[in-house]
Specification:
globular; 3-stranded antiparallel beta sheet; 134 residues; mainly alpha; 7 helices; Lysozyme
Amino acid sequence: MLSTILASCIALSTSYYSLPPDALPRLRALEGGWTGLAKPNTNGSADLGVFQINTTWLKTFRIYWQLDSDQAAYARLRDDDCYSASAAGAVLRYNLQLTGGDLDKAIGFYHTGPRGSAKEAARYIAKYHALSSR
């Protein structure tokens, strides 16, 4: 069950980025992250926090949030659920723009990135659709 604060942050991010109301709750459930998590990947990056935002986004969010360092962005993404929800909304909105508004492709890109495996993206999209909104 979502905390009231996280649920509020998800609702705010959903509204701000004009996302489908169940998109971020489903991504949160699918990602399975938690506050403080830094999960290393085999390519040297890591996935951070509740929404498992990849460290390849650090510079983008450092600039977007006007922070002094990538380390500050890292800490916020890892340790602050509201920043994680905000970042997830921004990443999904960006992917929607990349895909011309195709939600399924945007969801796949959330997991694999635009250059990732089409097979892996399809697997992730299927899992996304199998979830009920939480």
